[in-house]
Each structure stands twice: as structure tokens, then as C-alpha cells.
Design goal:
Shape of chain B: globular
Strand content of chain A: 15-25%
Order of helices and strands of chain B: EEEHHEEHEEHHHHEHEEHHEEHHHHHE
CATH class of the largest domain in chain B: Alpha Beta
CATH topology of the largest domain in chain A: Cytochrome Bc1 Complex, Chain A, domain 1
Shape of chain A: globular
Oligomer: heterodimer
Number of strands of chain A: 15
CATH architecture of the largest domain in chain A: 2-Layer Sandwich
Radius of gyration of chain A: 23 Å
Number of domains of chain B: 2
Helix content of chain B: 40-55%
CATH superfamily of the largest domain in chain B: Metalloenzyme, LuxS/M16 peptidase-like
CATH architecture of the largest domain in chain B: 2-Layer Sandwich
CATH superfamily of the largest domain in chain A: Metalloenzyme, LuxS/M16 peptidase-like
């Protein structure tokens, strides 16, 4: 198995990248001095990937199926997967997002036993028909738990407002009614199609010898037979243009929860998406970072507090900002945000603010490298989106005022949608 | 590596721990004060300190300066540990070696730290009225927003029933009433009083040059103090008859919190046995609670147990349907009985032991965990290092775990639910 090494001397990091004959891409981040070892195995199959063309034929599945499959991969009639990891003193977890499913473990000892286990349980499903039926009620509980969380309700409200019934605005776990349509056969089929090693990436970090690691992975993969990588074309629909009505609900909260969604243009491809996310990370610091005049005015006037936050995601199928937090006056906050964006579109940004915030971003990037888990997760996510996490640093250093202003210019402020959860007993 | 300690001229203890797997340096100033009626007056202090200093009178100017220093992170924390309120001011900055040119980032960052801690922005010789009012509003909103997270809300309600009147039943921000009574004047008095009288520690962790940081802190982070005061030593709760409290709210999933008291804390030799006991009962997916309540009977979405080993308390928390309350508490009671009778399989014992060992080894990498460990030692007066815990855990037998289990007493069961049975 061949692998190459990319070095980033300024960051004090290097990364090995290799590919097994059977198809799996393996990335290794050496972390000398760490006791902890961490690995994630991920596939670009998430909640929005509900339909696809498989060898030319349409394949359509219910909402929540990627998440259901993630749960079922942990079933093993012999002993539960969690318990097997526990017997090595390790812990395991998994999660499903809109665009990926990831399985991970963290340990200090018995690393290779754990790696074997990770590759085996994700690549060799052992779940049963009875297990699938029993899982429905467990996931129904999980859906219920999320429904009780006002933060989640207000967030989904913003997504629904922006995208209507597009898969991105559905709960990742689906609805209770969807669960009944998910059965053993369908889950097996999804595993065969979407967990083929040719689609997946393994990212490992820790104080480990790379030769031994790559030899070990090659051996594990060499012992397995995989079906041919099928031709799959993901059929994620393009969202309808325009945004819908405001969303409002009443729940037991102490004061209103606020989410303002603002749609951005879809990215042509993942490369453009990654690039735009980098530009926006700088733009957000200038616009509403803690040292911006705007953030401080809203804070001083009591319109926002420390609960305020913002996220931006950009993909070929959806692309948006979500501003969120608690506020007494959601309408006012929405107006303020859109008003400031309009002002920036008209007046532009200052070079001085760009310089200060660029230094901040570079510092934060280096700080993030302290965390083993966060670096591995960022690497896996970027890789599945055809990017390379550590090259982002270099890209960041080259950002200019023109990049930010071009982005701003293309933003359509008419594409916003407000979502609010109000206290039940508000007089 | 272990901490090295030294005492600054003003009596503050300086705790240093080099961690070369980090690319950053962490510096934290911690002030310990008994959690009581004046909690709100203390809690507002770090909040108002970060609003501005003599040189950087607004938060915006302060934040812009930090951004310029390669995003140096300045943060505050309010931690309740035992019956102490710990006021924390912390910075974290990138080590110079990763930055272009020859910089003096550490010294510049410590200059800001000094300003924030010792030279706050004042009006008429005290905190600015507008900053105090703004932070009071924010803290009151924070206290009220406890209601938005039902699990935390249920936990807080359980504590109030567990030990009414004790500092421990309070949250770290104080009550709404206490916050209302805070003024620019009494907060300023409290600030002066705490700086002078509170037990104070400075923690340094991560990648740093020893001489440079000792010099940097010694020349900047000293102020006149009256040393002598120590953090509050934990006092155990009184054991009482078990009480059951049920409350209603419009929610789908019920929240169960069970509080158990014991006389085992970090001060006792049985502490490692207590950790094992908690791990076997509810610390892991392989633990008795998860296996018997969730996996075998599908009664809960989540269930587990955790310790407050400063106070000798254990909490069992679960998310369940309202109709499952009876059955769930019965299954939990059976697990507690089994623990007390030493009905623990070899597998349960060994898996828990190795999971705990992994957890401890991983703490070596984690700056936050290392600081937490040192703070616990400061409060309990007994220092459990990672190696000493690893060694103790290796010796624990079923008999020790049984002994720990027998000293647990179920004191309060609290259940928050939506519908009827």
C-alpha cells in the first residue's frame, strides 16, 4: 500500500495519505507526545442522500434511513459493539449529519485491536430483522427527546422556512411515521451501496508508527471481499428558489428563541464550497465577531447576549447562514442583522478590520490543532468534501478585501426567513 | 509530567504544568469564595471585568486588541465545586514559535490580563453603572434560561430538594433576588474584598518557556493580598429519609434524577472504589443501568450515573416516558441492591477498570482536565495524581466496590413529566 507525506512545517504538522487496493483512503496525522489515539471511519452518506441513480436505476428511501443504519451498525448478536470497545478500555461513538455518517473510537491502549474492530463492524453489518424492529422504538424516543428541545425546534423552523420540504429541512432521524418503512432488506441494500470502501475515508491520529499502521490496514482490508463499487449518482434535489413564511411556535421557554436563516447561492462544486466557507469565516468576524462595532452595539443595547451565535454552511445543494440565540425582540434583531449586512454591501469593509481579524483567524486555526478529535473530524469532513484541511491555513493567509467584498456583493438579502419559539404563557 | 508549585511574593500559589503536545499557553487566575448569600455579587465580577479596562474602556476595544494578538482567547468562568464559587479569568495564546517574526506575544497578552484583572474600567471610583446593569440583565436571563434545558432544570430542582439551605443547592450565579440586589457600589466592594481575601491560584499549562512565564507572571499578576484563607473544605450532607418529588411541565419525555449520598469523597481512601462503583453502575454503555434499563427493557433513551466526588454524591439521570417511572425506578433499585451485595461479574469489573484507566491516561493530553484535577486537589486537600489513581484502580476488588455501594444512601428521587400515567 502506497502513501505520501505532506508537511506543514509552519504549523508543526504533517499528514500521511494513502489508498488501499480495495479502495479505502487512509489518512494519518502523527501526534507525538499524545497518550490519546483517535480514529474515524466516515462515508459521504447523510440525511439528505435519500435518492440516487444506481447503475442507471432510481433508488428512493424514506427520511431518516442514514441515521437508522448508523444505529443498527452497532448491533451484533454475539456482543454489542460498545461492549467490545469497552473490553479494550476504549469508547466508541457515531453520528449522522446531512451529508455524512461517521464512526469513531478513542483510546489510550489496545489501539490496533480497536482499529480492527472499527473496520470490521462498519464493513460487516451483523444486524438482524428483530433488531431492526426493536430499534424503531428507540429512535422514536430519540426523536421525541429532540422535539422537547426548543433550540432544535427553532433551528428546524429556520431550515423549513428556507427550503420547504427539501431533505435538508427534515429531522436527521426522520419522523416516527418514516421509521415503519425502514426494514432489514432496505438497510442491507443501503450499506452495500453507500459503505463501499471506495467511497469512505479512515482518519487516524496519535503517537503511532506510520509503517506499522499502513501495514495493519492493508492486512485488514486484504482479508475482506467487497462488492464492485457501483456507479451511484446522488439525486439530491436542488431546493426551490425563494423562501417561505416565518415560523413561530410556543413552548416552555423563559424568553423567545430566535433563528434567522439567510440563503446564499449554491456552490458549483465542493471546491467552491470550501473556498467560500473560508472567505465567510473571515467575513463573519468582521461583520459580527466579538470585536466588531455591530456586535458590541447589539450587546450593549441588550438585544443579544452570550447565547448569540452564527453558523454558515455551503454545499452544492444548500447554502445558508443561521443566526440564533435568545432575545426579547426577535423582529428587531432580524432587522438589525439584515440592515447591517445591507450597510456593509454598500460601504464595504476596512482593510484594518480585515487585517486584525485575519490574524485572529490564523491564531484560532493553530489553537484548534491542539485537539486531536477536532483535527481528525475536520480532516475527515474536508476530505469527503474534496478538500484538505491543513491547506486551509495557507488559503486563509491569502484572503483579501476583494474576496470578502465579492462574496458580500453576491448575497441576496431578500432570501431570509425568521423562526421564533415564544414562551407559552406570554401575556 | 506533574505540576510544579511556587509561591509568589503576595502569597498566590503558582501551579505550572508543561504540556508540549500543545501549541498554546494557558494562564488562569482562580479565586475561591464560599458559595453563599453573596454569590450574585461575586458572580458578576468576572462578567463586568471583561467589559473594559482603563486602557481599553469598551469590550470592543479589548476584543480588538486580543484579535490583533493572533486571536488570544480571553475567557471567564464561574465554577461551583463543592461549596466553593470559583471565579476564573483565563487566557490562551499561540506559542510564539508558530508565528511569523520574533514576537513577544506572551508578554503582550499578560499585559492585557493584568489590565483586566487589576485595572478595570471605572466611573466615579467604581464599576460603570451601565456595565453592571447590562451584566445583571444577562445573568438574570441565564438563570431563567435554565428552563429551556429540561434535563438541567430537573437536575437543579433535585438539588434544591436534596439540601435546602445549603450553599450546594444554589447555582453559581446566585438567585434572581440576589442578582437584583447587586449595585455598582456593592459589586465594587466585593471585588476589592475578594482580591484581598479570597484564596487565589494561578495555573499555567501547555507550551511555554518556564523562566519567561514565571518572570512574566511575577511582574504582572501580583496584587496586595492577605494570604491565609483556603478554599472551603467539603462538608457532607446530612442523611435523611428518602423523599420522592414529582413535578409537571408540558414536555414529551420525562426527566428522572435520583440523588444518593455517601461519606466517601476525594479525601477518603475509598475514593478509587467509589469511582469503580459509579463506573460499574452507570458510567458506561456496558454499565448495569444502561444495559438493564435501556438495552434489555427499552425504558429509557438515556440513563447513566455521575459523581460529585467532592461532596460524596452520586446522581442517576434518565430520560423516560411518564408511564415508565415505576418500572424504571424498580429496575434501578434492583441494580443498587446487586451492587450492595457484590453481584458484579468479572466482565463488569474488568471492563470498567480498563475504561477508567483509558480515561485517566487520556487526561494527560487534556489541559482542561489537568486543571480540574489540580483544583479538586486544592479543595479536597488530598492530591490524587493520574499515576496514583491508576495504581489504586489496579488493586480494586469486588469487595471494595461492595463496600462503596453499601455506603450509598438514596436520599432524593425527582421526576419531571408531562402527561399522566
Amino acid at each position: 500500500m502506497k502513501y505520501e507525506c505532506r508537511e506543514y512545517p509552519d504549523l508543526g504538522e504533517k499528514v500521511y495519505i494513502g489508498k488501499v487496493d480495495a479502495g479505502l483512503t487512509c489518512i494519518f496525522l502523527p501526534k507525538p507526545g499524545f497518550k490519546r489515539k483517535f480514529a474515524v471511519l466516515a462515508t459521504p452518506y447523510g440525511a439528505i442522500n435519500r435518492s440516487a441513480l444506481v447503475d442507471g436505476e432510481e433508488f428512493i428511501t424514506p427520511a431518516g434511513i442514514a441515521h437508522f443504519l448508523e444505529h443498527k451498525m452497532f448491533e451484533d448478536p454475539a456482543a454489542s459493539i460498545e461492549n467490545k470497545f469497552a473490553s479494550y478500555g476504549a469508547s466508541t461513538n457515531a453520528f449522522t449529519t446531512h451529508t455524512m455518517t461517521a464512526y469513531l473510537f478513542s483510546t489510550a491502549e489496545n489501539f490496533y485491536e480497536c482499529l480492527d474492530l472499527l473496520l470490521d463492524f462498519v464493513q460487516r453489518p451483523a444486524f438482524t430483522e428483530e433488531g431492526v424492529i426493536a430499534e424503531r422504538s428507540i429512535i422514536a424516543q430519540e426523536i421525541k427527546m429532540y422535539q422537547d428541545q426548543p433550540n432544535w425546534a427553532v433551528y428546524l423552523g429556520a431550515l423549513a422556512g428556507m427550503y420547504g420540504d427539501h431533505p435538508v429541512s427534515e429531522d436527521i432521524a426522520g419522523k416516527e411515521a418514516d421509521l415503519a418503512q425502514i426494514d432489514y432488506e432496505l438497510l442491507r441494500k443501503c450499506h452495500e451501496l453507500f459503505y463501499n470502501p471506495g467511497r469512505m475515508v479512515l482518519v487516524v491520529a496519535g503517537d503511532i508508527d506510520e509503517k506499522e499502521l499502513y501495514g495493519f490496514i492493508a492486512k485488514n482490508q486484504g482479508q475482506k471481499q467487497f462488492p464492485k463499487l457501483p456507479a451511484i449518482k446522488s439525486l439530491v434535489p436542488r431546493p426551490q428558489p425563494g423562501v417561505g413564511e416565518c415560523f413561530a411556535a410556543g413552548m416552555e421557554v423563559s424568553r423567545p428563541l430566535f433563528c434567522l436563516g439567510l440563503r446564499d447561492q449554491l456552490a458549483r462544486d465542493w471546491q467552491e464550497a470550501g473556498r467560500r466557507e473560508t472567505v465567510v469565516s473571515l467575513f463573519l468576524e468582521i461583520f459580527i465577531g466579538k470585536n466588531s462595532p455591530f456586535y458590541n452595539r447589539l450587546y450593549d443595547e441588550g438585544i443579544i447576549d452570550n447565547s448569540f451565535g452564527v453558523e454558515y454552511s455551503c454545499t452544492p445543494w444548500y447554502s445558508h447562514f443561521i443566526f440564533g440565540g435568545e432575545t426579547d425582540d426577535p423582529d428587531r434583531l432580524a432587522q438589525e442583522l439584515l440592515g447591517e449586512l445591507k450597510r456593509l454591501q454598500e460601504c464595504g469593509i476596512s482593510q484594518q478590520q480585515l487585517d486584525v481579524n485575519l490574524r485572529k483567524l490564523l491564531g484560532l486555526f493553530i489553537m484548534d490543532l491542539n485537539g486531536l478529535e477536532s483535527t481528525v473530524m475536520a480532516y475527515a469532513t474536508d476530505w469527503l468534501q474534496q478538500g484538505d484541511y491543513l491547506t486551509r491555513f495557507e488559503e486563509m493567509t491569502k484572503l483579501t478585501k476583494k474576496d470578502v467584498e465579492e462574496f458580500l456583493h453576491n448575497l441576496d438579502l431578500g432570501q431570509s426567513c425568521l423562526s421564533v419559539v415564544n414562551p407559552l404563557n406570554q401575556q | 509530567m506533574e505540576y510544579s508549585q511556587q509561591r509568589l511574593a503576595n502569597g498566590t500559589s503558582l501551579h505550572l504544568l508543561p504540556m508540549d503536545n500543545y501549541k498554546t499557553t494557558f494562564v488562569g487566575v482562580f479565586l475561591y469564595w464560599p458559595l453563599g448569600e453573596d454569590a450574585a455579587r461575586s458572580a458578576i465580577i468576572p462578567h463586568v471585568l471583561q467589559r473594559g479596562t482603563a486602557t481599553y474602556p469598551t469590550a470592543r476595544e479589548l476584543r480588538a486588541r486580543l484579535a490583533e494578538l493572533y486571536g488570544t482567547q480571553f475567557g471567564i468562568g464561574l465554577l461551583k465545586r463543592g461549596e466553593n464559587l470559583i471565579l476564573q479569568l483565563k487566557i490562551q495564546l499561540v506559542n510564539d514559535q508558530y508565528l511569523p517574526g520574533n514576537t513577544s506575544l506572551l508578554e503582550e497578552a499578560l499585559d492585557i490580563f493584568r489590565e483586566v484583572l487589576l485595572y478595570p474600567y471605572t466611573e466615579q471610583g467604581r464599576f460603570a453603572e451601565s456595565y453592571i446593569q447590562g451584566e445583571k440583565r444577562n445573568i438574570q436571563a441565564r438563570i431563567k434560561s435554565l428552563l429551556n434545558d429540561k434535563s438541567r432544570f430537573a437536575f437543579h430542582r433535585c438539588l434544591q430538594h436534596l439540601c435546602p439551605g445549603r450553599g450546594y443547592s444554589q447555582n453559581q450565579y446566585g438567585s434572581l433576588r440576589q442578582v437584583e440586589a447587586v449595585t455598582a457600589e456593592n459589586a465594587w466592594q466585593q471585588y476589592q474584598h475578594l482580591l484581598k481575601n479570597a484564596a487565589a491560584d494561578i495555573y499555567v499549562c501547555g507550551r511555554y518557556d518556564h523562566n519567561r512565564i514565571v518572570e512574566g507572571i511575577g511582574s504582572r499578576l501580583q496584587w496586595p493580598r492577605q494570604p491565609g484563607r483556603e478554599p472551603e473544605m467539603p462538608r457532607l450532607l446530612e442523611q435523611r429519609e428518602h423523599s420522592l418529588i414529582q413535578e409537571r411541565m408540558d414536555i414529551n419525555q420525562g426527566k428522572l434524577v435520583m440523588a444518593l449520598c455517601s461519606d466517601i469523597t476525594q479525601q477518603s481512601d475509598l475514593y478509587p472504589a467509589l469511582i469503580m462503583y459509579n463506573g460499574i453502575l452507570g458510567g458506561y454503555p456496558h454499565a448495569k443501568l444502561f444495559q438493564n434499563v435501556r438495552e434489555k427493557r427499552g425504558l429509557a433513551y438515556y440513563i447513566g450515573s455521575s459523581l460529585d466526588s467532592i461532596m460524596g454524591l452520586q446522581f442517576i439521570t434518565a430520560g423516560i416516558d411518564a408511564g415508565s417511572f415505576q418500572e424504571t425506578t424498580e429496575v434501578v433499585a434492583r441494580q443498587l441492591e446487586d451492587m450492595g451485595q457484590g453481584k458484579i461479574s468479572k466482565q463488569e469489573l474488568e471492563w470498567t477498570r480498563s475504561s477508567l484507566q483509558t480515561g485517566l491516561l487520556q487526561m494527560y493530553d487534556d489541559l482542561g482536565e489537568q486543571v480540574a484535577l489540580a483544583v479538586d486537589a486544592r479543595i479536597s486537600g488530598r492530591r490524587w495524581t493520574i499515576p496514583s489513581l491508576l495504581e489504586a484502580l489496579a488493586q480494586i476488588s469486588v469487595g471494595d466496590v461492595k463496600e462503596a455501594a453499601r455506603r450509598m444512601h438514596l436520599q432524593t428521587t425527582y421526576f419531571l413529566s408531562g402527561g399522566g400515567d
